[in-house]
Amino acid sequence: MNKRILLWGGLAAILAIAVGMGIYLASDDTPETTSADDIIDAETQNMLQVQSEDWVKGNPDADVVVVKYSDFQCPACRQAAMMDASVEDELGDDVAFVYRHFTLPNFEHSRTAAKYAEAAGKQGKFWEMHNMIFNYQERWSRGDANSIFEEMVEHLDLDREQLQQDMESAEVGDRIDEHRSQGERLQVRGVPSLFINGEAQQYPGSPDEFRELLESYL
């Protein structure tokens, strides 16, 4: 596979974002957004801080913490990942971007994709696998998913035997389930769900609007 597989689709990605962000529900595909007015108590607010085992891009000690609950097979989550990528380089010193799983049962391969990402993370390549899974979402979600995931494993030069053991481990499965459980306690009803400094927000319609939203917290 070409090394350019890790790159986002540039202008095409931005155009895809401009189409608009859909929200995928835990129970069906009906659009919905997490309300910014949702009341979250002090205990659950703590879950919206950076945790020791979180996957974080940017500055883990930043004053602005962006927590996203996401599903790898959700098309709107792919657009959200592109949106994140459009601002991470510019704001990465001031913002912590946290990824958490919220796998949906109506997506056939989303849990498998999450396991590949988690297992890759144990070999120090969570974000590389994250990027590839989203970048090639249309291929694996409609084709032979496991075969395509294995191509990604080869491209990232991961230890295949270790990765398989980790994917089958209770630790990886429990981590994915814990993310989902946390999301439910935070009143997450669909994906992608975005929280900034503990406040539920809807993904904006463009990278510029997203940048402005984040900058309003700085």
Q: What is the percent of helical residues?
A: 40-55%
Named CATH topology? Glutaredoxin
Please indicate the percent range of residues in DSSP E strands (runs of 2 or more): 5-15%
Number of domains: 1
Q: Output the helix-strand order.
A: HEHEEHEHHHHHHEEEH
Widest sheet: strand ordering = 2-4-3-6-7
Major sheet attributes: 5 strands, mixed
The stretches of 5 or more residues where confidence is low (pLDDT under 50) are: 2-21, 28-39
End-to-end separation in angstroms reads 40 Å
Can you describe this structure?
There is one protein chain. The chain has about 220 residues and is of the alpha+beta class. The protein is built from ten helices and seven strands. Strand 3, helix 3 and strand 4 form a beta-alpha-beta unit. The longest helix is centred in the middle third of the chain and has 17 residues. The termini are far apart. About 40% of the residues are buried. The N terminus is likely disordered.
